[in-house]
Structures are given as C-alpha cells and as structure tokens.
From TrEMBL:
Protein name: Glycosyltransferase involved in cell wall biosynthesis
Ranges for the TPR repeats: 276-309
Record organism: Paenibacillus methanolicus
PANTHER family: GLYCOSYLTRANSFERASE, POLY-BETA-1,6-N-ACETYL-D-GLUCOSAMINE SYNTHASE
One GO molecular-function entry: transferase activity
Chain ranges of the Glycosyltransferase 2-like domain: 7-131
Pfam families: Glycos_transf_2
Keywords for this protein: TPR repeat, Transferase
InterPro entries for the chain: Glyco_trans_2-like, Nucleotide-diphossugar_trans, TPR-like_helical_dom_sf, TPR_rpt
Keyword presence, Transferase: yes
Gene3D superfamilies referenced in this protein's UniProt entry, alphabetically: Spore Coat Polysaccharide Biosynthesis Protein SpsA, Chain A, Tetratricopeptide repeat domain
Keyword Transferase set for record: yes
Amino acid sequence: MSAPLISLCMIAKDEADVIARCLRSAASAVDEIIVVDTGSTDGTPDIARGLGANVFAFPWQDDFALARNAALEHARGQWILILDADEELDPASAPKLRQLAASGGVEGFFVHVYNFAGDREDSPAVINPTIRLFRNHPQHRFAGRIHEQITPSIQARNPAAAFMLSDVRVNHYGYREEVIQRKNKTERNLLLLQETLKEKPNDPFHLYNIAVEWMRLGRVQEALEAFRTSRMTTDPKTSYAHLLYKCEAKCHLALRQFEQGAAICEQGAAVYPAYSDLYHYAGIFHLNRGDLAAAKDAFARAVKAGPPPSGYHTEEGLGAHLSAYQLGLLQEAALDSQAAADSYLHALRCRSAFAPPLYRLCHLLRLVGREADIVPLLLERIRVDDAGAATGIMDVMIATGCSRAALAWLERTKHLLQPDDIACRAAMAELLSGLSEDASERLDLLSRNSPLDDHDDTLRLRILICSMDGRHLEARQYWRQLTRQHASDRDAPYAAIVGEPADPSPGMAPGMSNAERGEWRDVLTAAHANAKHAASSRIAESWKSRIASAAPAGRIEAAAACARALSGLADAHLEQLARGRKSRELAGAVRLVLPFEDGSLA
C-alpha cells in the first residue's frame, strides 16, 4: 500500500467549537489527519475522530515545538500540512495543495494566512506568508517553545533547500478579541516568550514576538523599544524584517508620535520600496500632522505601488482599495472631483464589495452635476453579474440621492432581476425623484400582471404613493392591511405618514435595525421630494420620538442616520437656491461637507 500523499498535522486543546470547521475544510486536500490533543475536556478528540482523524494524547509541556513534533512522528504522508483548529483552508485552495505536492525540487511552500483580528466580520485581514506545507522527513522537526519554526531543520539537512511562494489561502480566526480573552492567549504567549528570552537574550525574532504581545496588552512603549531593537539587529533579508518598520510605525501611531512615525515609514520604504503598507501608514501620519499635501502624495505612492509582493506581511486593502479610497477623500477635499472619482473607481475595481467609495462616488458626481455619468462609469469599470450586486449598487444610489441614476442602472441590469423586483425598486426610485404618478402607474401595471398587492413591500409602496397623491383614506386601508398580516419594525415610518399610531413590534424598542433606518430615510425623502411638507415634518417628529425610545446603545447610530437624512433635504434646498456662479460655488462647498449616507452605519 503506497504512503498517503498529504498528512494534515494539528495540535489542539479544547477546540470543540471550531475543529470541525477546520477538518472539513481540508478533507478533500489531505489523505491523513493527525490530531495531537494536549488535554481537552470539551470533547475535541471525539469530534476529530468522528471526522476521520487519528487522535493521539500528548501532555502539554509549555512547548509548542514538542507538541508539533509529536504529531509529525505519527504522520505517514509524503508531505505535511500544518493547520490549527481555529483556521480554515480556503475552498479554492484544496486542489492547489494537491498540485503543489506533485512538485519536484522544492522542500516547502509558503501559504498566505489571513488573520482576522477585528470584532466585525468584515474587518480587513492581516496577511502573513508562512511555511505550512513541507516534505515529511525524520530530520524535519520544529524548534522553539513558541512561534515554532520548521525551516531551520530543513535547511540543516539541506542547506540548498528551495522554498516557494504559493497562492494557497488559510483563514485564521484565533486572534479575534473574544477568542484571545476566552483562551487567555496573550498571558500564555507572554510567559513562554519570557522563558525563551531568558535562554536567548536579545534574540531579534523573539523580541519581535514579545513586542506583539505587549502591543496587545497596551504596553506600547515597551513594544516600541523591542521592535526597534529587533529591527536594528535583524538581517534586512530575513523574511519578517520589512514588517518591523511597520510595527514600529504602529507604535508611534498609538503614542501619537506622528513625526517619528512618518520618518520610520520613509526609512523603511527606502529599504523596501515595494512595501506599500509603509506608504499608506505614512499617509495616516501626515493626515494626523495636518499636512494634507504630503498625505495625498503618500497615499498616491501606495496606490501606484499596488499590493505588496507575495512574500510581504501586509494588511488587506493597503496599496489597493483602502489606499485608493483615502486618496479619493483627500482629492475630494481639494475639490479635484475628477481625480477623486477616478480614485473611488480604482477602489471599486480592487474590491467591488467595498461600499464606501461607491457611496462617495455617487454623492460626489451628483453634487458636481454629473449624476448621468454614474451608470456609464460603473459599467465601464466594474463587472456586475448577479442580482445581489446589482440591487446593492442601486440601493447605494438611492441612499445618496441619485434616484435618476438608480432608474438608469435598473434599466441596464434588469436582465439580472425578477420583474416584480424591478417594478418595486423602480417605483421607489420614482417616488424619491418626485414622480409619484409614474410610480403609481408602474405598480398598477404590475398588479395587472402579477398579484402582488398583499406583498409587504408592495403595500408599503402603496401607502407612500397614495399619501403622495392625497388619497389618504386609501393609504390608511393599505396600512391596516400591512399591520394585520405582519408586524415589523419597518412599519413605524408608514404609520407616521398616514397619521396612525405605531404599535411597536416585539423587539422594536431596544434599537433600530438597518432596515428600519432605511425606511425612515426613504419615507422622509419621498414626502419632501413630492412637496408634502406637512407630512415631512410629521415624519421627522415621529422619527425623533422613535429614536428617543431606542436603547442608548443604538441611539447614536439612529440619530446619525436621521441627521444624514435631514441633511439630504438641506442639500436639495441648496441645489434649488444656487443660481448664480458664486452662489453655486458657495452652495457646492457647503453641500460637500454635509453629512450624508456613506454606508458606515450598516
């Protein structure tokens, strides 16, 4: 019987909540699973066995390398894949591992580990290239009590050993704040690193690692000194040397030492000119110094450099969508609308799901009288091939007051949508443009072809249309039908427009959902666009009362959403009042700084 090709080796302790996700993600990529359990009490070994793993008990001895090597002793594969239980192999990477294992002349491969550390699910990842796939050999063993390394033993056996970068991706969730606190990782790591430094004082690699833990604990000055010492004693060709400049810079940022931070970024960029993270951070320092010209230049250099090459430790979006977005903000502040629009479009090309530049692009082009350009520019620069993306972009257009662009976008992407969805979204866009009669005709046509009058979204539209047309009795009838069949926190704005009391639905009082905030905004905007000023005032007062009833935790975001909607009404007034050149310039400057819906409250 031939040896299995790839053995997954893992050490685990009390990982019952995550180990199944990891093992399932790698199941198709490996031929054998070895789990060394270091003392679980939560059923981790049973879960692993149930997923086909060979599980071996090994007492924890405050030494990660010992535990890793215990797993290697049991592996029979030609190649070793290292994963931790709180990691997940990206679905597209499984077949790539098989291809890499068929390679000749290479002892190991770097993979890209995406570390998600923020509390939000959409927080950008820190990307570290790390050797996780290497040939199985009795002399290939890990060294190091913590942050254990495999490469020294491989190079000791074969000084000419070749390592290659791959595009395999591993997602790591173990450094989210909740996980760190629950598992007490920082204290554990710090104790092990302190013991290691007693054995190897001033070792640059361990100084770097202990500085990382000090940063997590808020001991920033100690971290800064350790990072600096590590940088000054590390060979610039070492795989992590470039990162030390950024780590120093982040310490200066935390200490609000903006001059020193900018200087270390420039110093590092001179050594590693492809490391766009340093240009991006330089931009942040210059912004904090108030030097907008230098900040704009730094972000422009980051965008020009692009994302760092594969061997660099980086943060997702630097040199790409985040840098381009920051550049666009500065260009917009300098009233260079064309350059800002180009930067926002560049950000969208880098990551079309990153919404903030789309909000700003739509808002900016509307303010400079180029709303008609929004749809052609988007169709030229980004690809949209599913209904979710198409409707998401239309929602942004509506949120930023670009209702006419939304209608044009709907026309160009209608092949992706269902007829009912097209009609409802188009009717809302027409209402927000002050075209209540067109919206009414569209819904009437839909009703003749599709029995949707009892659908919640259709009923809400009917309430709005009838209220705009002065058919108040009919609007109340639709309101009663809506509330009879389904109570929702989205209904409160419609109660306000028909003059009915809103009975809070279960769960409504503690906060305001994104959906409810959007309904309040759309109802208020529609009333104003259709010159229903008394209704606008009533809706605004009802919204204010609704905010007051929300729990304190959600009140700030709810009030911010209301302020943005009201500033949208002010924007519409300024647009109408600005007639002469000077008044247009003044109004334009004011309109640019009014708060508007930018996606940050989502």
